[in-house]
Design brief:
This protein has helices spanning 3-27, 30-61, 65-96, 100-117, 129-137, 161-185, 191-203, 205-214, 222-241, 248-274; strands spanning 150-153, 156-159. The chain has 275 residues and is mainly alpha-helical. A two-stranded antiparallel ribbon has the order 1-2. A hairpin with a 2-residue loop joins strand 1 (150-153) and strand 2. Helix 3 (65-96) runs parallel beside helix 6 and helix 6 packs across helix 9 (222-241). It is globular. The model has no long low-confidence stretch (mean pLDDT 83).
Length: 275
């Protein structure tokens, strides 16, 4: 996907989410509007951070761009199923034991701490334990066969390295869902709002990935903005339980400023490097 087409589709998906938000305002009230937009921006920013991991996985496995599309499509389908499952489980847990929100808040604060102070890892993904275990347990070919996940040779079915790529991407999405779903619960406990915000963020992942692949430097400092957001929503969910409530409009403003500021910092830093 070319940079121009990627940017076009990213704009379309974001515009669609905004139109949906105004539809909520028209048919319900302004609170649903702000809650959805806040959740959407949080999930969008976390999804964008997740795409950096996708990019690293594809590079590590040496997947050529025209073969990445199919993995992304299946990865998105898997992400939708996983997020729905996490949301339903989260709603049920909160209904049964409301103090679990303290745990959600603590989890987000720990994630923010790790993201802020841990060094970025560039280790060879193909050498991790899960990939090594799959290579030992299953018949995996050494070479790629286009974008096929499985092939038949000599009457036997073999997996291709594309299977390892897909499994690695899905496992990384599970880790990101552990952050993204509690973050949404910091804003609202309405399943409909949380699920729709996640879906709009996920459905635009494919075009957003190719935009990232073409303009990686544009989001190089996104990590800082995401770190602040995780810390903010983690603190917010704990303070809400203690009776100190921050308005939804304030939350939306903080999230937008963090994302916009980190992207602006990325652009400024990139220009200085070029200069």
């Amino acid at each position: 996907m070319s940079p121009r087409r990627s940017l076009l589709f990213v704009s379309i998906w974001i515009s669609t989410a905004i139109v949906f938000a105004f539809g909520l305002w028209y048919y319900t009230d302004s609170q649903h509007f702000v809650e959805f937009l806040t959740c959407y921006v949080i999930e969008w920013s976390l999804s964008l951070d997740n795409l950096f991991v996708f990019l690293m996985i594809f590079r590590s496995f040496g997947v050529v761009p025209h073969n990445q599309l199919r993995v992304l499509e299946w990865g998105i389908i898997g992400a939708i199923v996983l997020r729905l499952g996490f949301i339903l489980i989260g709603v049920k847990l909160v209904a049964l034991f409301n103090p679990i929100l303290y745990f959600f808040g603590a989890l987000l604060l720990i994630s923010a701490y790790r993201m802020a102070f841990s060094k970025e890892e560039h280790s060879d993904i193909q050498k991790n334990k899960m990939v090594a275990w799959m290579r030992r347990r299953f018949a995996i070919t050494k070479n790629y066969y286009g974008d096929k996940f499985f092939i038949r040779k000599a009457g036997r079915i073999f997996g291709t390295p594309m299977v390892l790529v897909l499994v690695t991407i899905e496992s990384s999405d599970i880790m990101f869902a552990i952050d993204s779903i509690p973050a949404a619960f910091a804003i609202t406990q309405k399943p409909f709002i949380i699920f729709t915000a996640n879906m709009f963020a996920i459905l635009g992942l494919r075009s957003l990935y190719f935009l990232l692949a073409h303009a990686e430097n544009m989001f190089s400092k996104l990590r800082y903005g995401v770190t602040i957001i995780l810390a903010f929503v983690g603190a917010k969910i704990i303070l809400d339980q203690l009776g100190f409530h921050l308005g939804h409009t304030i939350s939306l403003g903080v999230v937008v400023v963090c994302i916009g500021g980190s992207i602006l910092l990325s652009l400024i830093t990139d220009r200085k490097k070029e200069g």
